[in-house]
Amino acid sequence: xxxxxxGATTALTPLGVLVLGLLSERPMHPYEMFQxxxxxxxxxxxxxxxxxxxxxxxxxxxxxxxxVSDVHxxxxxxxxxxxxxxxxxxxxLGSALTSMLRTPAMEYPALYLALAEAHxxxxxxxxxxxxxxxxxxxxxRAEIHTAMSEALERGHPEMFQLDAGCRLAVLDAxxxxxxxxxxxxxxGELMWLDEYEELKRVNTQQGHxxxxxxxxxxxxxxxx
Length: 224
Known about the structure:
Elements: H1 3-9, H2 14-23, H3 30-39, H4 50-62, E1 66-72, E2 80-85, H5 87-102, H6 110-117, H7 123-153, H8 162-187, H9 193-202, H10 205-223
């Protein structure tokens, strides 16, 4: 296997993808990369720190995905090394994007974990917490929508905002589901842990069927 093939087959970090994406536009020095990523708010895709960016650039260079394009010196200021993407880097970027678009990744969203263990909290507490979360999600949705509209008005094509469109769709779906959950909890339609434990305590073997039936009816209501 050639060196070019080896570089393209090694997994890229999210920050590595961002850097290669930037340099596919034009050569830049790391400080310019950092400022450009911040201006575009692309720190929503990866933790962005100057140190981590410089480390990523060094790693990409060692893998021959980047090359030194030029070295600038302005007066007494330190030298600034300008980097450009290599053909191997373009291959690696294309391979990474192809894989991410094609194959769903195993992710660990905090919301799903919290929902899985929410029954350990009081029902009233969960209702209040959902109210707070939904309010913040609505604010996020409005902010994204405004940013997209403003970008389009400035002539920024939608193809550069596909992630924002996907985020809006996910937010819409999550807000709708969480609001329904909140209503079912507040009205008592959804059985909670204390009710479930009480049913188990007062019922005999026949009562277990009642518990199962109660759960089944609740689940059918969600599906329908």
